[in-house]
Amino acid sequence: MQALARRSPRTAALPDPDDEVVGISASGRTPYVIAAILEAPRRSALSVSVACNLDSAAGREADIAITGAPPPPRSRRRSMPRTAR
To answer: Is pLDDT at 1 greater than 50 in this prediction?
Structure first.
């Protein structure tokens, strides 16, 4: 924590080799998330992507990619209008 206090406000958010960069994006295509993941190896930090898409751009660039399960299929009965039930 002391090392963080000694940094200037401009560089306080930049990762060190002891840090991990975790990018969270539902689509896996958010430009700011991808930029942060691409910056991590330049600073010798580990990068992790969390996205819902199995083959996301952020996941391809990260050291570790975590993907969520696809949503369950909607019930056909619930999607029908009430009058058709």
So the answer is: no
